Amino acid sequence: MDEDSARARRRGALLTWQHIASLPPSLPVVYCGGFNTQKESTAGRFLLGRSREHGVVGDMRDAWANARMRKNVSLIHTYHGFKGDKQGTREFLKLFFRALCLCWDRQNQDLHMDWILFRGRSLAPISCEVVNDNIDGFYPSDHYPLYAEFILPRTVRPVEEAG
């Protein structure tokens, strides 16, 4: 989503949600990417069903929060600006104080700007990981990607395309 405009992120979340809501409710949906905002933002709260936008409420769930197993939980912030864990003193202190706040605020358990959201009772996230791989200190992105594994029951069949 747009990295500069909260209004554009809210609008993007609404447009995406309208498309997801038009799909059959039994169809499992995974929506992931760089949202460029935290889950406690207006766009995040809307997609996760905690606020109303233009009269509708999203109903996505967060794979990170719902996974049975999480890896690299100490990486509470997925944006790192190509620096990895070598953020510098100022950035480290900001993250440290935000982490302290997380101890008191259980609604906001991470500061990820990259999310894997899902919808559908048939999907169950088994594991989720913040991937911090690098080669000699060089990172492929300024954000750590997230990786999730889901269980999908055998009863869910692929939708056959009309021929």
From TrEMBL:
Top-rank taxon, per record: Eukaryota
Annotated transmembrane regions: none
Organism listed in the record: Taxus chinensis (Chinese yew)
Residue stretches making up the Endonuclease/exonuclease/phosphatase domain: 5-143
Pfam families associated with the record: Exo_endo_phos
Signal peptide: none
Gene Ontology molecular function terms on file: catalytic activity
Protein name from the UniProt record: Endonuclease/exonuclease/phosphatase domain-containing protein
Xref: InterPro entries: Endo/exonu/phosph_ase_sf (IPR036691), Endo/exonuclease/phosphatase (IPR005135)
